[in-house]
């Protein structure tokens, strides 16, 4: 799977990337009431400028992505100095208050996530095949502490053929997360020209540490 994603990045097939911060992030993040001192986990982050937006309002950000191409392209967006180091098998690049961990999200362990208190997920589920999504939801629940809040933006569509982007309907999102999170459905976007519809959710981690 990681090779397929790397190939997409190398060939520039990254239609999911947005040049501006996601409008739903701008609309809904404040309503989560996450303290600006809180470090935000951004799983499967690509080179999303949403991380810049979160950093610019005061958060420290930990993005995780297995395509080094994405990370390098993100860092090139600004001339700010970058420091690099290795930690727990990941190459970490830090620029200002954004740190990007290059590697597999499923290899990130709670020891490395100790400071995380919130999360932002856009388009992670739709990048993962069905069988991996439950593992993703459980892994996220392992990484964030009880009480952690997050915004989740996903997509459903009725296109034929294999993903990504996979279609992830609202019922599946509820089933994936309900064991360890309280979910609040915030809004559904209008279908785009291909009939793809975004759904926006607020999540709060509940229950004990896993
Ligand atoms: C659909 S893109 C979304 C990127 C970003 N969240 C955004 O909104 O632009 C999914 C990204 O996840 C990365 N990815 C997929 N599986 C991963 C994994 N297991 N660990 C780390 N990154 C992964 C891919 O390389 C790709 O950049």
TrEMBL record:
SUPFAM superfamilies referenced in this protein's UniProt entry, alphabetically: S-adenosyl-L-methionine-dependent methyltransferases
Keyword Transferase belongs to the record: yes
Principal subcellular localisation of the protein: cytoplasm
Keywords on record: Cytoplasm, Methyltransferase, S-adenosyl-L-methionine, Transferase
Broad EC category: transferase
Location of the protein in the cell: Cytoplasm
Binding-site residues, S-adenosyl-L-methionine: 9, 44, 65, 122
Enzymatic reactions: S-adenosyl-L-methionine + a thiopurine = S-adenosyl-L-homocysteine + a thiopurine S-methylether
Enzyme Commission (EC) number: 2.1.1.67
Residues of the signal peptide: none
Domain of life: Bacteria
Entries under InterPro entries matching the protein: SAM-dependent_MTases_sf, Thiopurine_S-MeTrfase, TPMT
Key word Transferase present: yes
Pfam family, one: TPMT
Protein family per UniProt: Belongs to the class I-like SAM-binding methyltransferase superfamily. TPMT family.
Protein name: Thiopurine S-methyltransferase
Species: Halomonas casei
Gene name of the encoded protein: tpm
